Amino acid sequence: MAQTYLKKIELASKAEYRNGRKIRLMILIITIAAALFEASDFTVSNNYEYGAVTKYSPNFDGFFGLFLMFVAAAFGAFAVFGVFSDLTNKQTADVQLSLPMSAKDRYLSKLLAVAKLHILPLLGAGIFVIIAGAIKGDVIMGQCISYLLQLHCVILAEALFVDAICIFCMSCCGAKAEGVYTSIITGLCASMTPFLVFNFTIERFSGVYLGDDESGKYFASFGALVGMCIPDTGIFDATAERITVLFINILLSCLLIFVTFFIYRKRDGRHVGKPMVYDLFMELFMFTGLFTLFTMFSYAKKWGIGLTVALIIYLVIRIVAARAKITPVTFLTWLLKYGVSLAAFVIIMAVGFFTGGFGHYKLRIKNTLNDTVRLSANYYSDDICSFYQSYHIEEKYRENMGSNNNVVIDGEPSDMISQAEMDEKITKLNALIDKYYDITDRDFEDFKGVMLNGSNYYDDRLRERTNVNISISDDSDFDSRRKIIHRNDFSVLFDIPEEKQDEFIREVGEIIPQTEVDSNRRIYEDEY
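^ that's the sequence the OP posted. Answer follows.
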């Protein structure tokens, strides 16, 4: 019985696969060309550090092959549009609905057809490139395989994301035009909105910045921006976080495909030809698009242009999707929904502002990763007070020094401290931030200033407050054999009352002591 059931699904998928011969040919041409160019562009570069140490790392002489590979990942949209054409074509729907197959059988057969048309060629191309890269980079074969494997996992994640979004939108639309443009817009919004919200809202409202490497984790967990997982170097020694992001991305795409089944099974011939089958999908689609546009233009301080452009796009989509006669009441209803979306956006932004980026302002760095740590504190008023100190962690420094026998450094750094001493300094800095960073006095005027003027902090002249910036970052002096490519880059910006200036400067000086100014460090300056 199970064998017969699987055979039925296999036969149905074969039929869908044969019907998509044109798209199959296009995807094959692109993936084959991409694999050949990527394999030829892949190389192992050797760099000389400290004049003696040779470091081998995987690299690409060109990126045309990678570009074609991502194009092939995006071409899955055409495969989905063809395989799921029964949702938008009356004749195809009548034929498929007349077959002795349940909605579950049809859905599984279509997923199998999409996998054959799109996913399998990408997997085959990836295997070919990995084997070719391992042969070309036999000096560091393991590192080459790791690099290329993760790179093609990113490409696979992109392909699954495209397929999942297109399957979802096609299942919610009864007309092909709507299925196409909603897929494009939804894909862009799903990719951009997490990035925009985190970078333009959460970080801006909290004043806590984690650097590009850290912030990338927060918005690459779903969407086309998963490519941010790829570092700018061929070294993949610390991969747990990147692999986690890739796994989450792939899992979310698969979850969306699974959830879409419950939408697909409710579809029947009556829905074919209807632009938007479900009103809820239409409203969520429009709100997501408007939210993305509002976020972009609020950060760019172009509210007049932004609201106008958003309204035009909103009305155009509403008009295109409307098959019934458009009356004045219909038009006013659209404008009312637009206003509700704008009000909802403002409310969400207000909540984010008054909670310090939805609580993100409470985030603190707990420990250091590398052997060199830099602490700095800046106080901006009419005078600029700056503290800066670079430290070497004794335990990590000696460990890295011992593993780099070819590196010769004259003497030991004078600013060497133990890990326990550094942990104590970081704990004190965190306590200092907790003491002086207060968001309870934020008011509506502050919110207006941030939203309308794009400012990140309070206007210290009007409020008689001054801005403060405290940062903690670490790095390694031993790049040639560095075990950890990830680094901390923590910075928090906030303001304090002017009457607390002297107390703040005194407490900072106890953590980052004042020393003489030399070519490598600048400690405590007063500039008018």
